[in-house]
Amino acid sequence: MTKRRYWMLGMVTALLLVATACAEDEPSGGQASPTAGETTPAEPQFTTVKEGILSVGSCLDYPPFESVEGGDEVGFDVDLSEEIASRLGLTVEWVRADFDTIFTAVASDQFDMVAAASTITDEREEVVDFSDPYYNSRQALVVNTTETPDIASQADLGEGHIVGVQKGTTGASYAKDNLVPQGVEIKTFQAAPDAFRDLEAGAIAAVVNDEPSSADIIKDLSGLEIVEPIDTEERYGFAFSPNNPELREAANGALAEIIADGTYATIFETYFPGVEVPPEFQPA
Question: Is 119 helix (H, G, I), strand (E, B) or coil?
Answer without folding.
Answer: strand
